[in-house]
Amino acid sequence: MRDPQYLTELFWYVSVVELGSFSAVAQKTGVAKSSLSRRVKNLEARLGVQLLSRGPRKFLMTSVGEDVYRNALDMLASAQAAKICADESRDQLGGLVRVAIPAALSSSLISIINTFKTDHPGVRFELFYEHEVASASNIHIDLILTLGDPPRDSTDIVARPMAQLQQAFFASPAVADRLGNPETLDDVADNDLLVLGSAAFHPEREEGGSRHIDSPSLTFSNLQTLKDAAKAGLGVACLPAISCSEELACNTLRVVCGKEKAKPLVLTSQTPPFKGITPTTRLLMRTIIQELQNQETSDIAAT
Predict the structure, then answer these.
(1) What is the CA radius of gyration of the chain?
(2) Taking Cα atoms as reference points, which of 204, 222, 220 lies closest to residue 265?
(3) Taking Cα atoms as reference points, which of 91, 81, 79 lies closest to residue 119?
(4) If 0-12 CB within 10 Å is exposed, 13-18 middle and 19+ buried, where does residue 275 land?
(5) Phi then psi for 204, rounded to 5 degrees?
(6) Are 107 and 246 in contact (CB under 8 A)?
(7) Which of 117, 170, 234, 274 is deepest in the core (most CB within 10 A)?
(8) pLDDT number for residue 208
(9) How many angstroms separate the CA atoms of 176 and 154, rounded?
(10) Residue 219 confidence (pLDDT)
(11) Cα 155 → chain centroid
């Protein structure tokens, strides 16, 4: 079907779903809310199905509405890819790229993205923290960078390892001094350890196996709060070295247990299937990999 009105209606339907309301789209684009509502109703009439279940305060996509949305995203991705191909023929990259990043690596990753944008001024970015999109199925994200476990058996998301981030053990200067600047993890009592995830084990050591912990100082669900707790003097934490470079420079964190070799942490990318990845996103991924390798080298040398 090559009716331009149909393609326009699909575009506005995707816009309404992604921004969450007709009002939000109207405010962002200047198109009247009544016009947007009429276009989506026309689309429903054209397809002969209900796409949105409307309530007094919000709407939800119906099951067929979700299918139409996913297919419309493919259509828009193809349109964006066509423009990018034209841009690349003029040695330019462009378009909007939505990226989600882990909060603990925000400083490094935002710096890389800023450099990328300087080199390619036609590219625009919308940045999210990873936890902001975890439950937001109505937002299309081009690239999710995560330190968590990748999804299993997903047909909509392709997970690829991006980089192995070297970890070390960190504490505030006050804690390091109080503990006598310990050289190994075995020199640190349970109640001075900060743990990510399970409180039963501390599996970050490459040698010596897992450390059984009966009573950790505190347990955290994400790396950012773990780092904040270490800076606040609550205990010793295992963290990616790249995430602590500013704290080391400012002496708000110090490396401890220097004789321990911590297991690296894997940064994983999550993207649509290959045909849905734009050339801009692919180049961004290659740039992030290269820059992280460079930062890792300098950070390890510094520690």
Answers:
(1) 23
(2) 204
(3) 91
(4) exposed
(5) -80, -10
(6) yes
(7) 170
(8) 59
(9) 44
(10) 86
(11) 19
DSSP code at position 156: S
The two beta strands, 218-220 and 194-196, are parallel
Q: How far apart are CA 193 and CA 237, in angstroms?
A: 6
SS3 16: helix
Q: H or E segment at 69?
A: helix 63-89
pLDDT (0 to 100) of residue 300: 46
DSSP type of residue 236: B
User: Hey, what are 235's tokens?
Assistant: 């205990």
In terms of Cα–Cα distance, which of 35, 50, 71 is closest to 156?
71
d(CA 145, CA 102): 7
Q: CB under 8 Å to 201, separation ≥6 — which residues?
A: 210, 211, 212, 213
| Residue 237 to residue 220: CA distance in whole angstroms | 10
Q: How many Cβ atoms are within 10 Å of 229's Cβ, its own excluded? A: 17
pLDDT along the chain (303 residues), means of 10: 80 89 89 91 92 81 90 80 62 80 92 93 90 65 85 72 91 96 90 77 58 80 91 93 92 92 88 76 92 71 48
Tokens for 253? Answer: 């964190």
For residue 100, what is the enclosing H or E element? strand 95-101
d(CA 256, CA 220): 20
Q: Cα-flanking dihedrals φ and ψ of residue 166, to 5°? A: -65, 135
Nearest to 104 by CA among 202, 211, 230: 230
Which amino acid, one-letter code, is at 237?
A
φ, ψ for residue 239, nearest 5 deg: -140, 155
